[in-house]
Amino acid sequence: MKYDPIKRTLGNVFGRSVFMRKLFYRLLDILLLRAWHIHRELRNWKRVASPEANILDAGSGFGQYSWYMSRMSARYTILGLDVKDEQVADCNHFFRELGTDRVSFRVGDLLELKDENKYDLVLCVDVMEHIEEDVRVMSNYCRSLKPGGMLMISTPSDQGGSDVHEDDESSFIEEHVRDGYGEEDMKSKLQQAGFSKSKVMYSYGKPGQISWRLSMKYPLLMLNVSKLFFVVLPFYYLLVMPLALLLNYLDSTRTHASGTGLIVLAWK
């Protein structure tokens, strides 16, 4: 399934005003299980982070994580980097409308990231599965971090990530260049990239896998058939949301022996 056309449609619908953009971010925070896991780790990071942290949102997309981090502290400086011109322009416009100059966005390729010893945190959500030269990008992240700085990644695992469970199946999202990472594979690549320590945790355990199908996969499949399903979606979510929220809570508050996602922390 091609995901980018649907993302563009969602961006156009919800990017028409500051109110609609904030509503969109709130919906993403609720619906996306990865956001529950990332928010938890960001809160943990904040306890030990510099009060004036410099942050890179690597592959910032719609900018929802930059917005979340900007509300964690008024003293953080956040740069969102993305290859898509229209998303960068939309995010810059939104934050200008908010009247803040501490969050900005720039068009850039993570393969060409040249910053050195600049960031306290690099956040990378749903990006690495799209990049063929992943160790090179991880090396760029490591170089860009200050000593002791942390990289935080969310990406599919090889335990059914991208909804791939058999060798002859292909990724649910066609834009992925790999179906997912193994725990040891990820640790090895981070070590090659120069990180001194890493921690890899599974997300999307059994509760999360059910929630993802109910709240994301099935709606996206419907929208891929016809945009008319936008009319049906509010009623669909009214039915499934209570169960999906419960499943998201269970998944984000438990440890999992395996799962279709990985949450990765690595330190320079």
Largest sheet, described in full? 7 strands, mixed
Number of strands: 7
Based on secondary structure, the structural category is alpha/beta
Radius of gyration: 18 Å
Strand arrangement, major sheet: 3-2-1-4-5-7-6
Q: Strand fraction band?
A: 15-25%
Shape: globular
Strand and helix order: HHHEHEHEEHEHEHHE
What are the segments in which pLDDT stays under 50 over at least 5 consecutive residues? 164-173
Helical fraction equals 40-55%
Average pLDDT figure = 89
Assembly type of the chains comes to single chain
How far apart are the first and last residues' alpha carbons, in Å? 36 Å
- Total helices: the number is 9
Describe the protein in words.
Strands 3-2-1-4-5-7-6 form a seven-stranded mixed sheet, sandwiched between helices. It contains nine helices and seven strands, in the order αααβαβαββαβαβααβ. With 268 residues, the protein is α/β, with parallel strands linked by helices. The termini are far apart. Residues 164-173 have low confidence and may be disordered.
